[in-house]
Amino acid sequence: MKKLLLLSLLIANQFEAQSQAANVPYSYGFENFTEGWDIVNLGTGTATWFFWENGDNGVTSAEGNNYAGYFFSDTDANSWILSRKINMSAGITYAISFQYRGQVPEYTECLKVTIGNNNTVAAQIAGTLLFENNQIQSDQWVTKTVYYTPAASGNYALGFNVCSIAWQALLAVDDIRINIATLSNEDYATPQFSVAPNPVNNLLTIENPHGLLIGKINISDNLGRIMKQIVNQSSTSVVLDIANVPAGMYILLIETENGITRKKIIKE
Which residues does 74 contact at the CB level (< 8 Å), separation at least 6? Predict the structure, then answer.
């Protein structure tokens, strides 16, 4: 009886720990199948994400002994991995990194990564798209880092959605890490971007003279609320229309493959 009671207490404590939000820094490599992560398959076929052991399907884990993989189906894929909840603070920029790969270069895989305010598919669809690649053919692990600045403090979760068409091969994900981003503050560093005019009334031009591609731009106030956001630009020059942004001082975050650059701007 005592052993059964102790086992019940251990299970209850483990469940309570998993239901609580994790704090940053946080990492997960699919080593513990009961750490509060979930799999939801919305595809019409039976194929879904699965936690594979190192070497399964001819794939070596990016780290540790396990990885998450989706093996092909005769129907289009629509399966989700949902992370446990993660505690994030408003106005803080987080660096979210993960590794992904295909299996056979002749086949093309598709992956979307999202973040939402709950670990449900509905919250992920209504949330923010962090990454999308529908041309994954590499049979080697690729590391990707994306950035997210929540407008409000609270619990957030990641979603990894396989969106490959039917009759492809295998898509794998591993080594997920969340850290507070290290920002380059151009008030104290050699400028990489030209931001003009500043102060600005309506149109703000952002240019990089070194050919660095701009991925995403956020303009947020001192409370971390996002006033303007543009994603997936992939250009060296962007013109922002901020005529509807109230007058005041704001933080401009410019995301590139090399990280995030921060500048202060004044809206008149």
Answer: 45, 166, 167
Q: What domains, with CATH codes, occur in the chain?
A: 21-180 (2.60.120.200), 184-267 (2.60.40.3080)
pLDDT digits (tens, 9 = 90+) for 49-68: 999 999 999 999 999 999 99
**Alpha carbons 32 and 170: distance in angstroms, whole number:** 22
Q: Is the pLDDT at 229 greater than 90, yes or no?
A: no
| DSSP string for 67-134 | EEEEE--SS---EEEEPPPEEE-TT--EEEEEEEE-S-TTS-EEEEEEEESSSSHHHHHHSEEEEEEE
| pTM assigned to the model | 0.70
Position 77 scores a pLDDT of 94
pLDDT at 189: 42
